Amino acid sequence: MITVQKEKLRKEILNIRNNMKKSEVEGLSEKIISRLVNMDIFKESKNVMIYLSFKNEVDTYKLLSHCKRLKKNVIVPFTVKEKKEIIPTLLKDQEKELVKSYYGYMEPSKEYLRPVNKEDIDIVIVPGVVFDERCCRIGFGGGYYDRFFSDVKDKVIKVGIAYEFQIVERVPVEEFDVPLDYVITEKRIIRKVSG
Ligand SMILES: Nc1nc2c(c(=O)[nH]1)N(C=O)[C@@H](CNc1ccc(C(=O)N[C@@H](CCC(=O)O)C(=O)O)cc1)CN2
Ligand SMILES: Nc1ncnc2c1ncn2[C@@H]1O[C@H](COP(=O)(O)OP(=O)(O)OP(=O)(O)O)[C@@H](O)[C@H]1O
């Protein structure tokens, strides 16, 4: 049963990630983000969708400031729990517009929802728990990002960011899993092999 295998891997890696020291999260995140912002695919992107990190995920808050400085449009996920749906929404003022979501990460409050067209997003920075050398991913198990990508597959660049310990040789995949184009760690950039 694939779901069971996924759950086992998810638990194993989360157990490591949840026990990281703050200093480790900070140091590694900086390396990963620095790799990302130096890539042409990032430099050439004007509309950037970024998750807002929590629970020792690769920290994206410095990336947010970086994008602001470069006058890029920052789009963040707003989740509709009942439908397991992500609404991409334009963030203008990080200080003013964000509140803590049901799950615990930050998201825009309803009054600041500014939905954008998925097709207009150039690059999506994707969170995740486990990734593999083919750029497949396992998240928290909601299927949010797979649903989100299901109708825009090749129209946006999908980039996972993760610590090296989150990379395994192969994660089990199901028909609805959408592979990413790149996975970036502090050690390397993994590219999806096409075909
Ligand atoms: N920062 C961030 N934002 C994100 C995601 C994410 O993974 N990280 N998502 C990616 O899809 C979506 C939200 N999905 C989520 C689904 C479940 C849980 C969660 O914490 N679930 C369990 C704990 C899971 C576990 O420890 O096994 C919980 O409710 O406690 C979090 C986010 C959209 N936004
Ligand atoms: N495109 C889709 N349409 C309908 N249901 C889907 C789709 N993609 C995934 N799902 C459902 O979502 C559930 C969770 O999928 P999966 O375990 O791959 O989530 P995940 O990638 O770990 O989570 P997330 O994307 O939220 O981080 C699956 O049981 C699946 O039935």
Question: Which helices and strands occur, and which strands form pairs?
Answer:
Blueprint: H1 2-18, H2 22-37, H3 40-43, E1 47-50, H4 61-69, E2 73-80, E3 85-91, H5 94-97, E4 98-100, E5 106-108, E6 123-126, E7 130-132, E8 137-138, H6 144-149, E9 157-161, E10 167-168, E11 182-184, E12 189-191
Parallel strand pairs: 1-2, 1-6, 6-9, 7-10, 9-11
Antiparallel strand pairs: 2-3, 4-5, 7-8, 11-12
The structure holds the ligand Nc1nc2c(c(=O)[nH]1)N(C=O)[C@@H](CNc1ccc(C(=O)N[C@@H](CCC(=O)O)C(=O)O)cc1)CN2 and adenosine-5'-triphosphate (ATP).
Adenosine-5'-triphosphate (ATP) binds at residues 6, 138-147, 150, 176-177.
What is the structure about, briefly put?
Helices cover 29% and strands 24% of the residues. By secondary structure, the protein is of the alpha/beta class.
Q: Please, could you describe this protein's structure?
A:
The chain is an alpha/beta fold and 195 residues long. It has one domain: Rossmann fold, CATH 3.40.50.10420. The chain is 29% helix and 24% strand. The chain has six helices and twelve strands. It has helices at 2-18, 22-37, 40-43, 61-69, 94-97, 144-149; strands at residues 47-50, 73-80, 85-91, 98-100, 106-108, 123-126, 130-132, 137-138, 157-161, 167-168, 182-184, 189-191. It has a seven-stranded mixed β-sheet with strand order 3-2-1-6-9-11-12. Strands 8-7-10 form a three-stranded mixed β-sheet, with helices on one face. Helix 4 (61-69) links the parallel strand 1 (47-50) and strand 2. The protein is globular, with a radius of gyration of 16 Å. The two termini are 26 Å apart. It binds ligand FFO and adenosine-5'-triphosphate (ATP). The site of the ligand Nc1nc2c(c(=O)[nH]1)N(C=O)[C@@H](CNc1ccc(C(=O)N[C@@H](CCC(=O)O)C(=O)O)cc1)CN2 has 17 residues, from strand 2 and helix 6. GO terms for molecular function: 5-formyltetrahydrofolate cyclo-ligase activity; ATP binding; metal ion binding. Its EC number is 6.3.3.2. Keywords: ATP-binding, Ligase, Magnesium, Metal-binding, Nucleotide-binding. It comes from Caldisalinibacter kiritimatiensis. This is 5-formyltetrahydrofolate cyclo-ligase.
